[in-house]
Amino acid sequence: MSVRLVSMIDQIGQSLSMNTAAAALFVDFSSAFNQLWFNGLWLKLNKLNCPLYIIAWLKHYLCGRKAYIDIKSTISSTFELSKGVPQGSCIDPVLFIVYHHDLLESLSTIHWKHLFADDLAVSIAPSAALSPKKIIKSLKKQLVQILKRLIKYSTQWKQPINYDKTYWTLFNRQGNPKIPTIKCKGHKIEHLNQIKYLGTILDAKLSFTVHLDYIKSKI
Length: 219
Description:
Alpha-Beta Plaits; six-stranded mixed β-sheet; about 20% strand; Reverse transcriptase domain-containing protein; RT_dom
């Protein structure tokens, strides 16, 4: 976890040190572990040349589980689950990462991608040769492109994105640029001036002042 965090901070810091800006997209998947699609998992494990006996064991472990819905003592008939891993199992994050091993590959190679369990963050750094206005336009364009690829991936592999908890942040130390509106396929992505990522509060200037104040308040 710390390696992912330090790596991302370093990448954003490099952009800021060159007097340019950077952006980061923080993606939340809806009920991530509950949405893991079994048929998609078997397909990807086969593509990874996973031994058949391991796939057979996982099928025995995951398949055949049943559930029902209880609403105010009104109980539905039982149904068999076709997705989702058992809650609290130590294998949950492992299966999630294996299932989404190709998620990062589906995004552009020019961006930095960080996936820790079900936390996905993508950082973007434009060319330092661009003017301030063109930098913001470039970041917006790249964010929309990333979102399009994510939506395509999430639709294909039945891993819905929670747009209400997906955010983006513009990191910048040069004045107060106009924050663009990021929309993709009818979904508006909220901009935050600061965000908590893997336990650390990242502010727009990457000063860590907000995070240090938060730590001091806990002492």
